[in-house]
Amino acid sequence: MNPVSASLPAIKRSQNSNSRESFFAGRTQIIGNSSSIGAILVNAGRLSEENVTRILEAQVQQQNPFGEAAICLGLLTEDDVRFALSRQFNNLYLPAGDNSLSHHLIAAYKPFSPVVEHLRSLRSQLMLRWFEPDTDRNVLAIVSPGLGEGRSFIAANLAIVFSQLGKSTLLIDANLRAPRQQEFFKVNTGGGLSSYLAGRAGLESIVRIPSLLGLSVLPAGAVPPNPQELIGRPVFADLLQAVGCEFDVVIVDTPSASEYGEAQIIATEASAALIVLRKNHTSLSRTVELARRFQQTGAAVVGSVLNDF
Which of 99, 107, 238, 246 could disulfide-link 157, Cβ–Cβ 3.0 to 4.6 Å? Predict the structure, then answer.
């Protein structure tokens, strides 16, 4: 008998044995490691343990990455894999079927969309122009001349993309006229900024958003009869100073600057403002006048954003 031929079955059995050992070790590692793609998707209800077994078998045979093998089998979609990768790298976002937050928060629901890419570009510009390391410049007011220009939308989604960068971020809804953030983030309106400024609540009014790592919100609370007087109190300036020491980034939503005087107070106390303009809507002359007023009171206009969303 040819000794080489005689040795082949033994070699084949050894290879199968190694493959089985590798497969079962891999399955144990996938299920036991909560940060693996498989475990993340199993925990999220997007993948069953039985299908993990099928994917691992295909992975051993094809020598493909786990996600690629799963997509080839039709057991996962590219969106599933992106979801898991985002969890692995702490870039948290919410699946489309999750209604825990408003879908106006596109940075939370559609992080790969062109709109959110523009928000990330805006974030980068702000990091260069205002939120520089080793400075105390970490509070920014989001303002606009008029109504319906998207201040609250920009403020909320900008806060989310900062938190996705790993920055501890606080979003303050200082629009005590027509607050939106408590609606966007579906937080309890009890307490809030208005109660804090009136001395009826403390910093426990700040709400952590558990589904978005690093993000907290101070909602406006109940709409008061005297919003300008509340914002004008020294306690508001003290609040910005206090939270500025606790958070990396503080974003402050404001009411319409041309309609109400609070926006200028807020921008002055924050020391900086980002002006939001809506395409084919915002008056250029009102924008120029707004920037001039801010500069007169010592608030730096760090830039403007054209909202076409």
Answer: 107
Q: Which two tokens stand for residue 153?
A: 């939308």
Question: Which residue spans of the chain are classified as CATH 3.40.50.300?
Answer: 106-307
Distance from C-alpha of 201 to C-alpha of 193, rounded to nearest angstrom: 8
Beta strands (DSSP E) in 24-150 are: 139-143
Contact 190, 221 (CB under 8 A): yes
249 beta partners = 169
Query: Rounded to the nearest 5°, which phi and psi values hold at 307?
Result: -90, 110
Q: Which tokens sit at 147?
A: 């109504």
Q: What residue has token string 């909202």?
A: 307
Domain 106-307 adopts which CATH fold? Rossmann fold (3.40.50)
Percent of the chain scoring above 90 in pLDDT:
53
3-state SS, one letter per residue, for 47-67: CCHHHHHHHHHHHHHHCCCHH
**Taking each helix axis from N to C terminus, what angle separates 262-270 and 284-296, rounded to the nearest 10 degrees?**
50
Copy the structure tokens of residue 213: 């790592």
Q: What is the Cα–Cα distance from 79 to 84, expressed in whole angstroms? A: 9
